[in-house]
């Protein structure tokens, strides 16, 4: 039998595995949360907070235990997911620069191939969004100054035991999504694909810090806090500030976490974050209930994931923008017809894998330029031949704010290797995740052979010194163009960014630092 015939046989086999009982292509729903720590979707993390609907998916579907973001920040991560390509290929450098508005997503291909499609809620994968502060902080990350760019992380309790809907915007979007399922999807003769993007459990803006404030408030109600097992909340160990890797110290300082925190403060931040995860889980539950009520659940592939995680005071940081597990490890669960149930998969996977997987589920050939690989061979109840084997590594990279060097993370086996900039000017890090789950012991000097192997592998995937240089040049050009565009208002505008308190302490020195970075002289 020749190769072409074999290929056809395997393609029909794949297609046959995902047919529903009535012989139609399955519906597809993706719920993507924002800043959801993937370690909460399996033990022991899952014990700290009640997530009944994620647990439902875990029992009836597949949970990936090693799923990672391709960039631990909102827009670049989502750009990777929607494009199926690593961020250095699409040049999605920060929250301001991501995909073009006319970029082809997997949703576009589903629609072109007969699916009824709908996208609701937070999308955030195209260029031009986010605040001026956010983009300027990214552009000037190589300037030699330290300025606090975020508000100190705080908690806020609202309402009482009957206060359920805290994140109103997300609940309204979820209501619209379930209404669409009832009114459009249930009556359609086409298979449908629905994307629901949530803001939770991303921290809220700290309103007291003014209109340019970032999200540093962990906000919930007693209703959701009751879902958290306070006795299981751990207080993460921290390295002394003097022992931190220089990039991690920069992140801690710019995130306004270098001051003192009591143990109670840290536990409270973590408890509130877990409660916000519980609220997001309830929104997933509303979608599942709508599918069940309309009789569509048995013919729908449901995917739950997130753009990145949340450190929640691990490594003396909150937010994301880090390659540590709390920030880079994302949830990834599948449930649906023809898929395995009750399975926990150890395979290393990342968000770029969703593009080819969704197309594979729909029986649509994937473009050849994708960075990701279909996960359907791992998901299907029946053994499926794959002509493109999934690699035994994942890549994540970061080029945005709160980190003062382009960062590249390669996860392979038990190792996590983190390289920076040109690979020489900033020391790399290496962690053995089997022995050091808290990532407190950089063993780069103990295992030079491992470093050499992983750095060679990283170079084979991406020429990271070249990419870092391209990002550095982009930052200078973009900042220079913005500076020219605001003209005479520049000094006032930059002095009113989120770092304004630190900026005002020594405006002249900070301006000189920017000029030296831009022009090489003052």
Structure in a nutshell:
The protein has 18 helices and 14 strands. It has 522 residues and is of the alpha/beta class.
The span between the termini is 72 Å
Total strands: the figure is 14
Overall mean pLDDT: 93
Described by the principal axes of the CA atoms, the overall outline is: globular
Total of DSSP H or I helical runs spanning 4+ residues: 18
Strand portion: 15-25%
**Helix fraction by DSSP (H/I, runs of at least 4):** 25-40%
Helix/strand-derived class?
alpha/beta
Taking pLDDT < 50 over at least 5 consecutive residues as the criterion, the unreliable ranges are: 1-22
Largest sheet, described in full? Answer: 7 strands, mixed
Spatial strand arrangement across the major sheet: 3-5-1-8-9-2-10
Radius of gyration: 23 Å
């Amino acid at each position: 039998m020749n190769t072409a015939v074999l290929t056809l046989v395997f393609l029909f086999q794949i297609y046959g595995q995902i047919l529903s009982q009535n012989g139609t292509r399955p519906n597809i729903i993706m719920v993507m949360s924002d800043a959801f720590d993937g370690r909460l979707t399996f033990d022991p993390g899952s014990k700290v907070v009640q997530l009944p609907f994620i647990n439902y998916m875990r029992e009836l579907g597949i949970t990936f235990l090693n799923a990672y973001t391709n960039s631990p920040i909102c827009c670049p991560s989502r750009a990777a997911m929607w494009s199926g390509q690593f961020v250095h290929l699409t040049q999605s450098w920060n929250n301001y620069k991501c995909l073009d508005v006319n970029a082809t997503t997997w949703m576009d291909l589903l629609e072109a191939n007969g699916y009824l499609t709908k996208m609701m809620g937070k999308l955030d994968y195209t260029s031009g969004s986010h605040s001026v502060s956010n983009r300027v902080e990214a552009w000037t990350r190589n300037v030699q100054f330290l300025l606090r760019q975020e508000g100190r992380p705080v908690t806020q309790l609202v309402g009482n035991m009957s206060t359920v809907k805290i994140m109103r915007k997300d609940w309204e979007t979820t209501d619209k999504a379930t209404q669409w399922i009832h009114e459009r999807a249930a009556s359609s003769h086409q298979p449908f694909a629905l994307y629901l993007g949530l803001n939770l459990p991303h921290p809220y803006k700290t309103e007291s810090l003014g209109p340019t404030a970032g999200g540093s408030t962990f906000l919930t109600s007693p209703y959701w806090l009751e879902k958290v097992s306070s006795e299981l909340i751990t207080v993460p160990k921290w390295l002394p500030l003097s022992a931190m890797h220089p990039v991690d110290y920069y992140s801690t300082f710019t995130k306004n976490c270098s001051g003192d925190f009591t143990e109670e403060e840290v536990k409270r931040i973590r408890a509130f974050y877990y409660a916000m995860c519980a609220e997001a889980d309830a929104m997933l539950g509303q979608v599942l209930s709508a599918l069940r009520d309309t009789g569509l659940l048995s013919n729908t592939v449901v995917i739950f994931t997130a753009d990145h995680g949340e450190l929640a005071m691990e490594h003396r940081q909150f937010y994301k923008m880090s390659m540590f597990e709390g920030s880079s490890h994302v949830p990834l669960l599948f449930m649906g017809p023809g898929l395995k149930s009750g399975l926990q998969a150890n395979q290393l996977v990342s968000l770029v894998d969703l593009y080819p997987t969704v197309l594979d589920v729909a029986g649509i050939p994937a473009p050849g330029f994708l960075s990701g690989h279909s996960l359907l061979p791992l998901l299907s109840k029946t053994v499926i031949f794959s002509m493109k084997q999934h690699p035994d590594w994942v890549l994540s990279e970061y080029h945005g704010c709160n980190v003062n060097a382009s960062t590249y993370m390669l996860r392979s086996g038990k190792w996590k290797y983190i390289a920076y900039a040109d690979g020489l000017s900033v020391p790399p890090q290496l962690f053995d995740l089997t022995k050091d789950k808290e990532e407190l012991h950089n063993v780069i000097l103990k295992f030079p052979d491992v470093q050499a192997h992983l750095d060679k592998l990283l170079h084979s995937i991406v020429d990271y010194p070249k990419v870092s240089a391209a990002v550095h040049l982009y930052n200078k050009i973009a900042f220079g163009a913005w500076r020219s565009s605001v003209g005479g208002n520049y000094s006032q505008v930059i002095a009113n960014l989120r770092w304004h308190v630190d900026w005002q302490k020594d405006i002249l020195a900070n301006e000189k630092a920017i000029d030296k970075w831009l022009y090489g002289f003052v």
